[in-house]
Fold:
Amino acid sequence: MIRYFFILLLIFGCNSQKLNWYKGSLEDAFALSDDKIIMIDFYTDWCAPCKLLDSDTFTNEEVIQYLDNNFIPIKINAESEYGMPLYEKFKGTGYPMIIFLDKEKNEIDRFYGFYPPNDFILKLNNILSGDHTFPDLLTKYKLGDNSSSTIFELAKKYFSRGEYDDALQLYEKVLENKDLSYNMFHETNYSIGMIKLKNNESNNLEKYIRQYPESFLLKQSIINLLMYYKFNFLEKKELDLYNKYIDRFSNDPLFLNQYSWRMTELNINLDNALQKINLSLSLIENDDKNQAMINDTKAEVYWKLGEVDKAIITINESISTDPDNQYYINQKEKFLNSIN
Structure:
């Protein structure tokens, strides 16, 4: 039996190596004598890309070795009492935010989102070499490099740092150049629209989606406009935009889910919302991680329609898929309480 177990170890391997996250505070990390670069992973408990980083990238042996040798990695919950003011100090704009600091507390660079192991290592290589980092691009620009690519990449760095005025000036310079690529043109216009949106000006992004209906950034532009209309109580504009694009994006289960959930919040178009959420469910695989969330939306639609029994049956499917999710359990309790 022991010999059989040993053979299994040889066949399947035994990787017990884990990333050695620094347990102290950021202030303690700066006080270390080690001259390594500090890497902060700002995450939240609900962030799906954060969980992908943990499961797919930070378990990779090469990534672990690379970080252990060259960095002091710190994991900070951006919504915790300790993490929230730090995240705000660094003007974070999304999750996960991976930020790199030198021993003098200067920011070397940052990036957002999920990167698989090989791409993550390429990012780390750039941090160590200084290539394509914020200081590198800023130096090139100050020394007279006015190429579209340098100005564009520097503008993106300013944008990611929450320094929108500087980003806007550079993006506008990008559009003055004649050598910008197709992608650069659209990303620049989209980014200008987003900066204006943060300043409560929606005209730029609205004009962009009218002028470039085939842009690869059309859907993202629309989603951001919808959120802007929602939080500024511009319900008519929001509904007009949904009505215009709901059929165009009828092959996107998440867009259909967003529409259906919003209709439950507004308590309108519920029959149509049920149709769209059923379409959403038909488009995803049974093992899709979003299935529980989409079933939750369907349950909410049923509940708003007064079909409580169907709402309970449907939310049970969400709980079955994700049994530890307290939100789904609370949803079921809400439905049950509404019977009494």
